[in-house]
Amino acid sequence: MSDLQQLSPTRRRPMKLYTLVTLMVCAIIGSVLLLVFALYSMQITRATRDDVKDTALGIARTFADSPDVRRGLMASPQDNIIQPIAQAVTRRNDLLFTVVTDMRGIRYSHPNEALLGLHFIGDDLTPALEGKENVSVNRGALAEALRVFTPVYDNQHDQIGVVIVGISLKKVEDQITRGRLNAVWTILFSILMSSLAIWGLVRVLKRILFWAGAV
């Protein structure tokens, strides 16, 4: 009989109540934080791209209203009226490029001066030649970029060209990554605060259960 008792499996001790509560609270908080991070990450991506697009549109519209751009489009690309101004705008705003074309799609400005007088690359120029602002992601002579197109009008409000502003997609992704990193630090801080709160809750619960004789 004693041998049978020795061979019988040892009964596992039931999980203590405060341990069970701790695991449940940790699971709930962890799930909530993961959901918040996923939603926040998507929101950061959308908000960053919208912000970059709005900034690029603002730059393009301002440049398209410049009298020098209008005057330059009345001349030849080789007259080099628009090119130095466009390059200054590109440097000042940390853009990939600022390109101006006439109604035939001929470039009047470009970071690579050898491409002046040549046709702009990309079908996404077509809506802008029809008087419609356009935003696209495409690759032309330079790196893949977020490209913003806005029409240029003369004093009689006749369209005479297009301004295209390009922002490197790598720059956009870098901004999104920085935003997500900030979200990660926020989540980690929340986890730390939650852990401290759970630790305090468990200590209080242990005392209550101890004095109630349940431990």
UniProtKB/TrEMBL annotation:
The region annotated as signal peptide is none
Q: Which GO terms describe its cellular component?
A: plasma membrane
SUPFAM superfamilies from the entry? Sensory domain-like (SSF103190)
Please list every transmembrane segment annotated in the UniProt record, as residue ranges. 20-40, 181-202
Enzyme type, top EC level: transferase
- Occurrences of domain Single cache (ranges): 46-177
Subcellular location as annotated: Cell membrane
Supply the alphabetized keyword list.
Cell membrane, Membrane, Transferase, Transmembrane, Transmembrane helix
Q: Report the EC number(s), separated by commas if there are several.
A: 2.7.13.3
Q: What Pfam families would the database entry show? A: sCache_3_2
Q: Which InterPro entries match?
A: sCache_3, Sensor-like_sf
Task: List GO molecular-function terms, semicolon-separated.
Answer: protein histidine kinase activity
Q: How does it sit in the membrane?
A: Multi-pass membrane protein
State whether keyword Transferase applies: yes
* Name of this protein: Sensor protein dcuS
Q: Which organism is it from?
A: Enterobacter cancerogenus
Protein's gene = dcuS
